[in-house]
């Protein structure tokens, strides 16, 4: 069956969402037009409002409506600690853990040479400018423990150390509540290599 | 060929991209079945046990069903006795460079066991932290020979006379080596070419000639396609050089300046 042009356009637009195929998009579109018209209006306004108002933080590249995000603006945050992450979702995850009081820098990706993604695409120039300001003492590299994330961390650690600053990498290892028997060899090797002395 | 099953072939993941919410599309190089695309369902989920295995540069054994555009990964495990870890972080850019050469020069579904073994050996050399330029030049040379791009080191193009160490030669990609009278700018020293053929890549002059020659031969084989890893490696080197310069200007006492990571530059 052929959809009315506006419906087809809506279905097509919904497919830009991650994990939404043609069938799901059609179900969503029909729901919005049938029972959810009030919600649909709020959704449309919400998207429109966010697109107009949300930009990137001048300092850390996190999404924000102001020039600086709440973390960068807060005087309570420790400006000598900078945690470098791949995505805004990583910032949220670390914030929810509640144990971190420093600032962030969001790369919006990782080094991926085969896709042509290098330092320029990751805003490394902005990161260098931030390091040159002289406030940061330690850069915590919290990129993902994938090959791409490791390459990114290695590259950024060289930039950091060349400036005489401390570069640290988040630990990888056995998850809390996990059992060694079920952990893959790569993780276990990392966990052993990064072991800590007890009782100090 | 529908419904074909392959059990535990030796494979490397060359490239991967996310597919749908929890899956990945893998561009893999298999020893017995050549290069192919595999769909790996559910490997990005929080409970996936194969996510940590399905990384580039790690020797794996994989099983899959189907062929062509629809092959599905059904099982993966680490190759017994192989390294469980990827390359050292400093060698990753070199590793991606090897991957890009394979992605661009090896056709899909064209089994190349000798190239597969060459690739596995080269990764081992990078893992052993051997001198990167010599490792890469050796890989490029053997790859071009194995894939039949007509690189015949050691002989002249016309007549097939053996190359002489004390003479100079021009290289024409479609033809081969042609002797030239003098030490012209674009010419290669015979001793460099013989050293490259013997895998004796230690001297700087030999390495530079080898780099230049492989660049010309690869550019011809790539038929104008750009290598993205080269561009990224150059940008990484530039950033490192900038960082080194800034540390010198900040504290003149902090000499010697950090060397740009030339080991990371593919060519």
Task: Provide a quick synopsis of the model.
By secondary structure, chain A is α/β, with parallel strands linked by helices. Chain A is built from eight helices and six strands, in the order H-H-H-E-E-H-E-H-E-H-E-H-E-H. Chain A is 44% helix and 12% strand.
Helix content of chain B: 25-40%
Query: Sheet bearing the most strands of chain A, described?
Result: 4 strands, parallel
Order of helices and strands of chain A: HHHEEHEHEHEHEH
Q: How many separate domains make up the residues of chain A?
A: 2
Quickly give the structural class of chain B: alpha+beta
* Radius of gyration of chain B (Å): 21 Å
| Strand neighbour order, sheet with most strands of chain A | 4-3-5-6
CATH C-level category of the largest domain in chain A:
Alpha Beta
Mean pLDDT reading of chain A: 92
Average pLDDT across residues of chain B? 86
Tell me what the CATH architecture of the domain at 1-130 in chain B is.
Beta Barrel
In which order are the strands of the major sheet of chain B placed?
Answer: 3-2-1-4-5
Distance between the termini of chain B: 41 Å
CATH class designation of the domain at 1-130 in chain B: Mainly Beta
> Which segments of chain A are poorly predicted (pLDDT under 50) over 5 or more consecutive residues?
none
- Helix count of chain A equals 8
Helix and strand composition category of chain A: alpha/beta
Strand content of chain A: 5-15%
Using CB atoms under 8 Å apart, which protein chain pair has the greatest interface?
A-B, 34 and 45 residues
Helicity range of chain A: 40-55%
Characterization of the model:
The complex is a heterodimer of chains A (200) and B (267). Chain A is an alpha/beta fold and 200 residues long. Chain A has 2 domains: 49 residues, RecR Domain 1 (Helicase, Ruva Protein, domain 3); 94 residues, Dna Topoisomerase Vi A Subunit, Chain: A, domain 2 (3-Layer(aba) Sandwich), CATH 3.40.1360. Chain A has 8 helices and 6 strands, in the order H-H-H-E-E-H-E-H-E-H-E-H-E-H. Chain A has a 4-stranded parallel β-sheet with strand order 4-3-5-6. A two-stranded antiparallel ribbon of chain A has the order 1-2. In chain A, helix 1 crosses helix 2. Chain A is globular and about 70 Å long. Chain B has 267 residues and is of the alpha+beta class. Among the domains of chain B are: 130 residues, OB fold (Dihydrolipoamide Acetyltransferase, E2P), CATH 2.40.50; 37 residues. Chain B contains 6 helices and 8 strands. In chain B, strands 3-2-1-4-5 form a 5-stranded antiparallel β-sheet. A 3-stranded antiparallel β-sheet of chain B has the order 7-6-8. In chain B, helix 2 packs antiparallel against helix 3. The interface between A and B is large, with 34 and 45 residues.
């Amino acid at each position: 069956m052929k959809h009315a042009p506006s419906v087809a356009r809506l279905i097509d637009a919904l497919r830009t969402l991650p994990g939404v195929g043609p069938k799901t998009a059609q179900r969503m579109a029909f729901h919005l037009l049938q029972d959810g018209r009030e919600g649909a209006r709020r959704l449309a306004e919400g998207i429109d409002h966010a697109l107009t108002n949300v930009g990137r933080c001048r300092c850390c590249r996190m999404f924000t409506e102001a020039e600086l995000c709440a973390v960068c603006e807060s005087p309570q945050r420790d400006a000598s600690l900078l945690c470098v992450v791949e995505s805004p979702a990583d910032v949220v995850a670390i914030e929810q853990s509640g144990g971190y009081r420093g600032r962030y820098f969001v790369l919006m990706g990782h080094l991926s040479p085969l896709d042509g993604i290098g330092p320029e695409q990751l805003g490394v120039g902005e990161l260098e400018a931030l390091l040159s300001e002289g406030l940061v003492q330690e850069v915590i590299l919290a990129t993902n423990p994938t090959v791409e994330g490791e390459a990114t961390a290695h590259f950024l650690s060289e930039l950091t150390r060349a400036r005489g600053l401390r570069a640290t990498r988040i630990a990888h290892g056995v998850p809390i509540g996990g059992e060694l028997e079920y952990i893959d060899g790569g993780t276990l090797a990392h966990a052993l290599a990064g072991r800590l002395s007890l009782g100090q | 060929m529908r419904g074909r099953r392959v059990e535990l072939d030796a494979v490397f993941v060359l490239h991967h991209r996310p597919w749908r919410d929890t899956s990945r599309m893998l561009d893999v190089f298999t020893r017995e079945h050549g290069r192919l695309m595999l769909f790996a369902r559910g490997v990005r989920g929080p409970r996936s046990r194969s996510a940590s295995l399905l990384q580039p540069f790690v020797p794996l054994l994989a099983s899959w069903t189907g062929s062509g555009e629809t092959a599905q990964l059904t099982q993966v495990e680490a190759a017994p006795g192989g390294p469980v870890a990827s390359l050292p972080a400093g060698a990753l850019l070199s590793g991606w460079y090897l991957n890009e050469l394979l992605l661009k020069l090896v056709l899909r579904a064209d089994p190349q066991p000798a190239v597969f073994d060459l690739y596995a050996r080269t990764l081992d050399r990078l893992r052993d932290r051997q001198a990167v330029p010599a490792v890469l030049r050796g890989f490029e040379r053997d790859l071009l020979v194995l894939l039949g791009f007509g690189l015949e080191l050691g002989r002249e193009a016309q007549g097939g006379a053996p190359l002489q160490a004390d003479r100079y030669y021009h290289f024409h990609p479609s033809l081969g080596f042609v002797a030239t009278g003098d030490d012209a700018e674009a010419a290669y020293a015979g001793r460099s070419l013989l050293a490259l053929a013997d895998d004796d890549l230690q001297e700087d002059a030999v390495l530079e000639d080898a780099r230049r020659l492989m660049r010309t031969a690869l550019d011809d084989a790539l038929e104008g396609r750009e290598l993205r890893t080269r561009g990224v490696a150059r940008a990484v080197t530039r950033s490192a050089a900038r960082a080194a310069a800034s540390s010198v200007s900040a504290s003149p006492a902090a000499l010697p300046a950090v060397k740009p990571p030339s080991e990371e530059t593919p060519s």
